Amino acid sequence: MGSEARKCELATVSLADNDYEAEPAGIPPSHCFGSEIGQPWISEGQPADGVILANGSRRNSKTRSSVSTADSGDDVVAQIDHSSDMDFCEDHESQLDWYCSSEAKLVCSQCVAAGSCHSHIVTPVSRRASVIRNHLVDACEKMQLQASRIERFLSQTLVTKEQALQVDASAARERVVARLNLVRETLEEEEQRLLEAVQREEERVQQCLLTQKAHWTQALDSLTQTRTRLVHTLTHTMDAKLVNSSQDIAERVEEAEGVGDPIDTEKLTMKFGCSESKLILGLWASAALLGHLGHTPINLTFDERTVSPLLSLSPDQRTLTFLSKRAKRNPQYDPARFDSWPNALCSRLFSSGTHSWVVDVSQSDAFKVGVCYASLERKGSSDASRLGYNAQSWVLSHFEDVISFCHGARHDYLSVVQKPKRIGILLDWPGCTLLFFDADSGTTLHTVCHPFTAPLLPACAVGNRSITLVQP
Description:
Blueprint: H1 2-5, E1 9-12, E2 62-63, E3 67-72, E4 75-80, E5 84-86, E6 98-100, E7 105-107, H2 109-113, E8 122-124, H3 125-236, H4 239-244, H5 246-257, H6 278-290, E9 311-313, E10 319-322, E11 343-345, E12 354-360, E13 367-373, E14 393-399, E15 402-407, E16 410-413, E17 422-428, E18 433-438, E19 444-449, E20 456-462, E21 466-469
Helix pairs in contact: 3-5
């Protein structure tokens, strides 16, 4: 047996290899000690037990095995090297031909019958080896299938993906270039149209100025000559002659009075809207709000001095809440405070640059958001202090499910599918542009172009629940 155990042979591992030795005489059948059918895979670190050689010989001993595999079609060839560690039980000097699952070791028949492994779950070594071989075969087959999947993934999927990547990247570049080319062409045409419109308006005003200049220069010369003659008549004419010249003097005076006074008219000023363009305005707003070079929204709080007694201000000075019942005690008098309308202003003045801020209006059904001049009246219940009802305030209003832009008591009603939850205000002070937008979708709600003549303050009014300045 020793010479056979040292032989190394190549054997094809088969799932049908289930041969094992008959149980020794006097030993109860294996089922009396517990069945090993379906025994789980040998635990990590345990030596391989009871290996059957390819030539059919058996060696029931603890062994150290090294298995090398070679891919030959669908067959798995294993070369098993056996080197004996222990052939016989140290306690009974009997052959180790049983495997004890309880102690995870090889034992002899006497250990099973009346020794330390009595009543343990035991299995013949050959059956245990067969189970292990079957697990090995399954594992090798799984590895082979996995290797095949990896090969297909490398040779087919990744190659196809690489080809598709080139196609998709090329299409994406073409799409970017095509869209930007369209934008450039459209912008160039719009630029040319606006520049020509500005040029025409400039030429018109210039012509009016030249005409007015020529007219009033001539009138000034005529008036100066008439005045000079009348002064000469007044100072150098004798009384008798002066009386005889009264008719001539009256005609000259009447002629001078007919010159009239010059009047500054709109014809002498360029029309403010000659450079307006919905396309340019929309692109500008998108760039300012969405572009990476656009400005950062500002951090605003309400000025407590301006808050109406009809409102309460949160501790962080960002939320205005309408009071259904007026406070029993009025706040201390302050000339900056609104005393009749539920208004409040922010403390920051804007007289240059581009700025934006957002107001959360989701909780309120009656509100106004916008801007006003600092000179807006604060006292009384007249329209002079009512946001949107005078020439000093511009607001977006929501009342009774209707959204409108208000200025000078005039309402421009907006077609909006649903009330925005957050309304943004974009102010370009030097560009004389005020834009209201839906902060969640970026949709422009209304745009105002107006030549602002004084610094502006963010302004709000609340007639139901609350609104909040959103912190950027």
